[in-house]
Design brief:
heterodimer; A: alpha+beta; Uridine Diphospho-n-acetylenolpyruvylglucosamine Reductase, domain 2; Uridine Diphospho-n-acetylenolpyruvylglucosamine Reductase, domain 3; Enolase-like, domain 1; 3 domains; four-stranded antiparallel beta sheet; 14 strands; globular; B: alpha+beta; Aldehyde Oxidoreductase, domain 4; seven-stranded mixed beta sheet; 19 helices; disordered N terminus
Chain lengths: 287, 768
């Protein structure tokens, strides 16, 4: 493993200052499940890590019916996965959390870390995008809140400026008419990176779809929405033919690449299959 | 031992029982010492600079910056190491290896080959110093596919060998009259088959530690299956007598065959330690276990067989081409074993086989569980299923008709003892009610219309021991201590299979002492008797017999001593569970401890005996019955249930045998569906040399496995009829999955791995 210097931040201000002062090749160290592997595998050049795990106030989980679910940057995937509220109200998040890495990884990795890594195949991102989550960002001069769909600018890249730190995420409340699903597609049942991931969050009124968001993972430079497919479904009863047409449209809207995991054509095919299945599954969650 | 020696009937006290393994406590508590745990005072860390080019001459290599880097103690290149042409896999007295390697050469033959080595005070510094070594290459045209490498005029990868990038002269086997057989056939099936490049991915990456003492003696700890071969070749290449090389191996995290080569890093570690006069450790990263380790030979097979309408096989014509990668390693052995294996499995009197092994500019392929036979039996078994389809027969019925029988000539050239395969097949057919299963209603479940279910059968046979390719020898030394405990000395490596437990069971059973009273000393070439290495599914069969022989001699000596003390004739007494007793009067007894210990002026006894066994070969058999679900929309195949029926002769430790079978199935599911080490065919670069994108099935992916072990065909060559089990399970599972996929979706696949994309593409072509 290549050598690096370790710094422990006591406060957000301290961490932010370290990030600014230590220069390039300085990274926040949270769960470390990606960062340490990347250092070891020489995928990322790292001179300094800034450990934020001791900063107070970043480990809370709260829920209320108006704001929704808010959790801090230090909340692990495993803790959220086991939270009864998540299991009951956010089956899409629950599916994404439960499919990330292994139990050991999930007990260390954080959701905020997963989104900041900004991998197009990250499991937690599609359901958060489909749910319209918000990202809370700290800097020494101001705080800002960014819709998660606008948070990513490319593979591994986000809107975070130097010295900015994500402190938490808010997911809007899950209404009684909301159906949610996330389907991860890979070759294995655990310890797997998605070949394709599809999240659907929708709401129905009197049998008619009044809103739907489809988020596609691992088929573009960032997690993508499928706005045309969504538009085709709003106002419909989500019958089989409407779903099939929308799934075909989602296949057109994605921009996959070919690599050793799968070809672009296969990924596109899976967007079609999984979009249909995710809509069906979302409908079942509140049926 | 005479192959026709009858197997003695007896009641077993220890053999056949799943006794607690001797290494369990150490392993679960983390106390077990692996080579990677070794820390010596002043120890340095070695790293290897690897080429980022597939075929090149080294024009120049500048190590001055690396040598000047603080903490670096030595750098070695082809200019500074001994230039000795050596075997990659030095099996003694064997035709199955090739002398084509140098420790470091001025030529690079695959992307990832080592070109220099650094020793430094920390692993990090050694790693950083690698970047400071400047190598100037003259690129050479490279070949990545055996077809290209075998073309006339293709760039030659080696100067040695038969030429034309062949690793060895083609292996040819002819029996009967193949042309006549085809002329008499009612129909002929012909097909091409292709196997990928699965990698064993053992848990413990290759690692070694070298330490020279003041008398110029090398002590060498290394994770190897073949410590005496490591000793022999290290001594030869370094110009040392065997008294000056001591090889040690304690616990190992697997090997699966791949850890029986002599690796570049092993020589370099010894040389760096010599140069610096300090101990040096070298440990592969996971990436290095791929690029510098050994994988299974990719193989292309052309197979043509003639059948009668009653299902009788009348002709078999087969050509196999194995891809050796950049060096010979086990290429010759794999080619010989994999090719000759095709004389058998399904009976056919007229057989014509040709096996080739070709160098390519890709990472080295070597020994890996199933040794060439995984490839050839995949083709044979799938084509047998195709014949059944053509005949409108149940494949179980056709396989049952054609499987090898007792007395048939085995690939080794010997008549087969026992009748194991037919019994395995029949047993599976009975327990599963296969006929009903095969004739079931195949209408998809309306709740899951996109899922199709299928069942398939795969058959295999595999030899215990590498005879006749290698004339093998097993050795054991057994000592009885004065307190009645017993020490077994063996050179057999413990890869994690429980081999030492099985050997201790055999000694305890034969000698008549408790299992707990037998200690095993292993893995020190200065102490234990010579050993050929742990491979070819032969440890229990070969070393087990040697241990039994030594224990038998010791038993006789203990009885003689006890008879003297009891003042009776040795024939009047027996020995069981650590007690010597009068047969006619069992209450008159003494413990082995009392028999051995000093008493009334008689000093303690020193009883030691050796057993040496030179076997021929036995065959184990298996039929796997496998159920799969195929998702026709995503192409994902899920193995749902496997019923493996194995005949392994006498079972020494049932849980260990079952573990071997389950593990082999897991690896076999991997290479059939998900595992393939992919080399970029434009550059020779590895595309998935790591566990992120090299997809091994994990525990969550495992199906229900209902292992059935039969003791139907014991072989008199093994202890109480025991045969090997290590390699068998990985061979039968592959074709059983491919055949099950055909049953599910009506598409034949002739290659592995069968990917979801392959499934969707084939379904589309079928639908079109």
């Amino acid at each position: 493993m290549r050598r690096f210097d370790y710094h422990r931040a006591e406060t957000l201000e301290h961490a932010s200052r370290l990030l600014a002062e230590l220069g390039d090749d300085t990274f926040l160290f949270n769960g470390g499940t990606d960062l340490l592997v990347e250092i070891r595998e020489r995928l990322r050049r790292v001179r300094n890590v800034v450990d934020i795990k001791q900063i107070p106030g970043l480990s809370d989980i709260t829920y209320d019916e108006t704001r929704g679910l808010t959790f801090g940057a230090l909340v692990t995937v495993g803790r959220l996965e086991r939270l009864p509220l998540v299991c009951q109200r956010y089956p899409n998040l629950r599916a994404a959390f439960a499919s990330l890495g292994s139990i050991q990884v999930r007990n260390r990795a954080t959701v905020v870390g997963n989104i900041c890594r900004a991998s197009p195949s990250a499991d937690t991102i599609p359901p958060l995008v489909a749910d319209g989550a918000f990202v809370h960002i700290y800097s020494r001069t101001n705080m800002r809140v960014v819709p998660i769909a606008e948070f990513f600018t490319g593979p591994g890249r986000t809107v975070l400026a130097k010295g900015e730190i994500v402190t938490g995420i808010t997911v809007p409340p899950a209404g009684d008419t909301a159906g949610k699903a996330y389907i991860k597609h890979g070759r294995r049942k655990a310890m797997e990176l998605s070949t394709v991931g599809v999240a659907v969050s929708l709401s129905m009124e009197e049998g008619v779809c009044c809103d739907i968001r489809i988020a596609l993972g691992a088929v573009g430079a960032t997690v993508l929405r499928a706005p045309q497919a969504e538009a085709m479904l709003r106002g419909t009863r989500l019958d089989a033919s409407a779903v099939r047409s929308a799934a075909d449209k989602a296949m057109e809207e994605c921009t996959p690449i070919s690599n050793v995991r799968a070809s672009a054509d296969y990924r596109r095919d899976m967007v079609g299959v999984l979009t249909g299945r995710a809509i069906k599954q979302a409908l079942e969650t509140f049926a | 031992m005479n192959m026709t020696t009858p197997i003695e009937p007896r009641e077993f006290k220890i053999v056949g029982k799943s006794v607690k393994r001797d290494d369990v406590l150490e392993k679960v508590t983390g106390e077990a010492q692996y080579t990677g745990d070794i820390k010596l005072p002043g120890m340095l860390h070695g790293k290897i600079k690897r080429a980022a080019i597939a075929h090149a001459r080294i024009k120049s290599i500048d190590v001055s910056k690396a040598l000047a880097y603080p903490g670096v103690k030595a750098v070695l290149t082809h200019e500074t190491v001994p230039r000795v042409l050596h075997y990659g896999s030095p099996h003694p007295r064997s035709a199955s290896c090739t002398k084509d390697q140098y420790i470091l050469d001025d030529k690079v033959r695959f992307w990832g080959e080592g070109v220099a080595a650094v020793a430094a005070i920390s692993e990090e510094i050694a790693d950083e110093a690698l970047d400071l070594i400047e190598v100037e290459y003259e690129a050479l045209p490279a070949v990545f596919e055996p077809e290209d490498a075998a073309q006339p005029g293709a760039p030659l990868i080696h100067d040695v060998g038969p030429g034309g990038n062949l690793v060895l002269d083609p292996v040819r086997v002819n029996r009967g009259d193949v042309d006549k057989g085809f002329a008499e056939a009612d129909f002929v099936l012909e097909g091409t088959f292709a196997g990928g490049r699965p990698h064993p991915a053992y848990m413990e990456p290759n690692v070694c530690v070298a330490d020279w003492d003041g008398s110029n003696k090398l002590t060498f700890w290394t994770s190897t299956q073949t410590s005496f071969m490591v000793r022999g070749i290290l001594a030869e290449v370094l110009g040392l007598p065997l008294t000056k090389v001591r090889v040690l191996v304690d616990h190992m995290g697997g090997g699966f065959g791949a850890k029986q080569d002599l690796f570049q890093h092993e020589f370099l570690c010894a040389l760096l330690a010599k140069e610096t006069r300090r101990p040096v450790k070298m440990e592969f990263t996971r990436h290095e276990t791929f690029v510098a380790g050994r994988s299974r030979h990719p193989c292309k097979i052309w197979l043509k067989q003639g059948f009668k309408n009653d299902g009788t096989l009348v002709a078999r014509d087969m050509k196999l081409v194995y891809d050796s990668g950049a060096y010979g390693s086990h290429g010759p052995g794999v080619t010989i074993v994999g090719t000759t294996a095709a004389t058998s499995l399904y009976r056919c009197e007229n057989v014509r086989l040709e096996g080739r092994c070709v160098y390519t500019n890709t990472p080295i392929n070597g020994a890996f569980r199933g040794y060439g036979v995984v490839q050839s039996y995949y083709a044979l078994d799938i084509q047998m299923d195709e014949a059944a389809e053509r005949l409108g027969m149940d494949p179980a019925e056709l396989k049952l008709k054609n499987v090898v029988r007792a007395g048939d000539i085995a690939p080794s050239g010997h008549p087969i003892i026992g009748h194991g395969l037919e019994i395995c097949l029949q047993h599976g057919i009975d327990v599963l009610d296969w006929k009903a299963l095969w004739n079931r209603d195949r209408t998809p479940d309306p709740k899951r219309p996109h899922i199709r279910t299928g069942w398939g059968i795969g058959c295999e046979m595999h030899g215990s021991s590498a005879y006749p390719g290698i004339k093998e020898q097993g050795n054991a030394t057994v000592k009885v201590n004065e307190d009645g405990t017993v020490t077994l000395l063996t050179g057999a490596a413990g890869l994690g299979t429980g081999a030492h437990t099985a050997l201790a069971q055999i000694v305890a059973e034969e000698l008549g002492v408790r299992f707990e009273d037998v200690g095993v000393i292993h893995g020190d070439t200065d102490v234990v008797p010579w050993d050929i290495g742990a491979f070819a599914s032969h440890t229990t069969y070969l070393v087990g017999t040697a241990a039994k022989m030594a224990a038998g001699k010791v038993r006789a000596a203990v009885l003689a001593r006890a008879a003297m003390k009891l003042q009776v004739a040795p024939e009047e007494i027996d020995l069981s569970e650590g007690k010597v007793f009068l047969i006619a009067e069992p209450d008159r007894c003494m413990t082995v401890s009392e028999a051995m210990g000093p008493s009334r002026g008689i000093p303690a006894a020193n009883i030691v005996a050796n057993g040496t066994y030179e076997p021929t070969k036995s065959y184990s058999f298996a039929a796997h019955f496998t159920e799969v679900d195929v998702d026709t929309e995503t192409g994902l195949v899920e193995v749902k249930r496997v019923v493996p029926v194995h005949d392994v002769g006498r079972v020494i430790h049932p849980i260990a045998a079952q573990g071997q079978i389950e593990g082999g199935i897991q690896q076999g599911i991997g290479h059939t569906l998900t595992e393939d080490y992919v080399i970029d065919k434009k550059t020779g670069r590895s595309l998935n040399a790591g566990l992120v994108d090299y997809k091994m099935p994990l525990s969550m992916d495992m199906p229900d496995i209902e292992t059935i072990i039969l003791e139907a065909a014991p072989d008199p060559g093994g202890p109480w009829g025991a045969k090997g089990v290590g390699e068998d399970p990985i061979i039968a599972i592959g074709p059983s999955i491919a055949n099950a996929i055909h049953d599910a979706i009506g598409v034949r696949f002739h290659h592995y791995p069968i990917t979801p994309e392959d499934i969707l593409k084939a379904l589309r072509e079928k639908g079109a």
